From TrEMBL:
The keyword Hydrolase applies. PANTHER family: IRON-SULFUR PROTEIN NUBPL (PTHR42961). InterPro entries: FSCA_dom_sf, MIP18-like, Mrp-like_CS, Mrp/NBP35_ATP-bd, NUBPL-like, P-loop_NTPase, YlxH/NBP35. This is Iron-sulfur cluster carrier protein. Binds and transfers iron-sulfur (Fe-S) clusters to target apoproteins. Can hydrolyze ATP. Keywords: ATP-binding, Hydrolase, Iron, Iron-sulfur, Metal-binding, Nucleotide-binding. GO terms for biological process: iron-sulfur cluster assembly.
Length: 358
């Protein structure tokens, strides 16, 4: 005899293609009625114009086809009521009802996610490039990785990933990050019409940063990189308030004055008491016919690491300008190899296991 349980068991492995959770768990199976060996099944979608309607429809039909003894079925796709949608969102938020003031799961004291802020003493040394490429290298090694582009005014992460025309999917007020090269990305870029300048100041910055946690469904991630704005200002303090356990990666170039950079970064690290993971020296040398040319001088990264009493983790070679739209280096390029090595070191330092296969 066909039972409701048997049908729900068959439907349980079917996932909402966007949020990757079971449609049964998300409360999307509204109704199952059985008459003999026939079933009427009603599945509800978050919004009526759900772009993934066909995918859900065919996945559900396929799953129903596997129920032993079920000879025929009628499948109806409907739209959620406000109440159902609220349950859906509460499942996404880890079961916390919306009307309670919630600490987003990522910000809870027992969060399993590691935070790394990528900072520098000065602008233009390659923080965003390093953030993007390190994130991709970590993802290539099986880590679940996200990036928050914390450079609210000067966002450049979407440009580096070539996803400037993408928008996060919105389910009511909950945003799904844009995914590129296996990395989940949120940036102010996605919320600014026509690249108009952003003029929020002071407290708004912290609020925006908080929204990037509270309003975004990150799912389970191992490491979240924060691309910091140039300088060591307000944002560093906001990040410290939200993420007291965040660690820092300092980017420099060979020609920067190590003592000067160390003084700035050191003050910031003191104020925030963040652990510094190490220094990344970017644009270290240009390699031509197997020979390294130190165009911008030598030793800046090492001196800075010494000043900050930390380690020089990596020297990233200078690259020829990338084709527009994609600032992510392929794995086999000298830069790609350097980032793979850096990702291994950072992964080890954070003591997080890769989650390949999940
Ligand atoms: N290893 C490299 N080889 C060649 N060009 C590079 C390298 N790293 C970064 N660049 C280039 O240098 C410029 C500045 O890099 P990026 O935007 O990452 O720096 P930033 O520190 O984030 O800057 P800002 O302080 O403005 O946020 C970009 O045009 C980038 O493509
Ligand atoms: Mg930048």
């Amino acid at each position: 005899m066909v039972t409701r349980e048997a049908i729900l068991d068959a439907l349980r492995p079917v996932q909402d293609p966007e949020v990757h959770k079971s449609i049964v768990e998300l409360g999307m199976v509204r109704n199952v009625e059985i008459t003999g060996d026939h079933a009427n099944v009603e599945v509800v979608l978050t919004i009526s114009g759900c772009p993934l309607r066909n995918k859900i429809d065919s996945d559900v039909r396929e799953a129903l086809g596997t129920v032993a003894g079920l000879k025929s079925f009628d499948l109806k796709l409907g739209t959620m009521t406000d109440e159902e949608r609220s349950k859906f969102r509460s499942v996404l938020r880890g079961g916390v009802p919306e009307d309670q003031a919630v600490t987003p799961a990522l910000l809870a004291p027992d969060t399993q996610t590691q935070f790394v802020a990528v900072a520098s003493g000065k602008g233009g040394v390659g923080k965003s490039t390093v953030t993007a490429n390190l994130a991709v290298a970590l993802a290539r090694q099986g880590y679940r990785v996200g990036i928050i582009d914390a450079d609210i005014y000067g966002f450049s992460i979407p440009g580096i990933f070539g996803i400037g025309d993408k928008k996060p999917t919105v389910i009511d007020n909950l945003l799904l990050p844009v995914v590129a090269h296996g990395v989940k990305i949120i940036s102010m870029h996605f919320f600014v019409p026509d690249n108009r300048p952003v003029i929020w100041r002071g407290p708004m910055l912290g609020k925006m940063l908080r929204n990037f946690f509270a309003e975004v469904h990150w799912g389970d991630i191992d490491v979240l990189l924060l691309d910091m704005p140039p300088g060591t200002g307000d944002m560093a303090l906001d990040i410290h308030q939200l993420l007291p356990k965040s660690k820092e990666l300092i980017v420099t170039t060979p020609q920067q004055n190590a003592t000067e950079v160390a003084a700035r970064v050191g003050t910031m690290a003191l104020q925030t008491q963040h652990q510094i993971l190490g220094v990344v020296e970017n644009m270290s040398f240009f390699e031509h016919k197997g020979e390294k040319h130190y165009i911008f001088g030598k030793g800046g990264g090492e001196r800075l690491a010494l000043e900050l009493k930390t380690e020089l983790l990596s020297q990233i070679p200078l690259g020829v300008a990338q084709e527009s739209g994609d600032g992510i280096y392929a794995p086999e390029t000298p830069q790609g190899l350097a980032y793979a090595h850096l990702a291994k070191t950072v992964g080890r330092q954070l003591e997080i296991g890769a989650t390949t296969g999940k």
